[in-house]
What does this fold into?
Amino acid sequence: MEGIIIQNISNQYKVVNEKDEIKICTARGKFKKDEITPVVGDKVEIENDVILRILDRKNYVKRPRIANIDQIVFVVSMKEPKPDILLLDKQLAFAENLGVKSIIAFNKCDLENADELAKLYSNVGYKTIQMQAKNRIGMDKLKECLKNNVTVFSGNSGVGKSTIINGLFNDNITEEGLISEKNKRGKNTTTAVTLYELEENTFIADTPGFSTFDITEIEYTNLDKEFIEFVPYISDCKYVGCSHIYEDVRECGVKIALDEEKISKSRYENYKKIYEELKEKFKRRYN
It folds into this structure.
C-alpha cells in the first residue's frame, strides 16, 4: 500500500495511506545502508507498518527537510517583526532554483507600505496576498491558492505562519509564536516539520521557524537566472557570464533595464548583496 509521510519524530513516521488511515511506521534498515532517509512529503510504499520503499521524488529540501512540494508561501510581517526583504529575496531565489511556485503573503497589513511591496512583487511576477490573519482577512484568497498542492509555509518566527495555518483549519493545530517584548523578534515555537491535510489532495506544511536562509546550493554565477525579472535582459549583455555588477552599464542588459526602471532598485541591490555573499562562500569552500 502507498501513502505519504506527514510527520517524522525520531525514527517513527506518521503516514497517511490510500484509505486515508494514519499509520505509525518505521523504516527498514536498508535505507541507512543506502544513505537515504525518508522525510515528510515522501510518497512511500508500506507493509505491516514498515516503510519498504521511497517513491521517486520530484524535489527535496535539505533544511527544513521535506520532499515533493509544489509551492512555498513566504509569510512577511508588515509590523513586528519588521519585514526582512533581503531574506524574502533569498527565499524567492531559492524557490526558483528548486523549481517551485512562490506566493508572498504580507501579513499584519494595516500599514501603507504593504501596498507598495505588494505592487513591487506583483510587477516582478509573483502572486501576492495582503492579509490580517488574526481577523481572517485574506484567508479565503489564500485557501483558494492551496487547492491540489503540497504547500510549505516559510518565514521568520513571529510573522504569523501558525496563526494562518490555524485559521485555515479553524482550529488551534499549531502553537502560535509569541513576539519577544525585549527584542521584537519572533520566538521559534514549531519544532518539527508537519504536513496537514487541508482537504483532499491538498496538504500544507508548518516548518521550524528560522531567521536565516541557506541558499549556498545556488552557484553565484547562476544567481541572475533566479531573479525572474532579470532573465529577459541577460541576453542583451555584451559578455557571456556578465555579473551585472562590475561591468559598464552600456555592456549590461540588466543594468540598462535598471536605468530604464524595468527592474526595481531594491531587488537589484539585494541581488548584489546575495551575489557577494555566495561568491565569498564559494571562495572559502575552495581555498
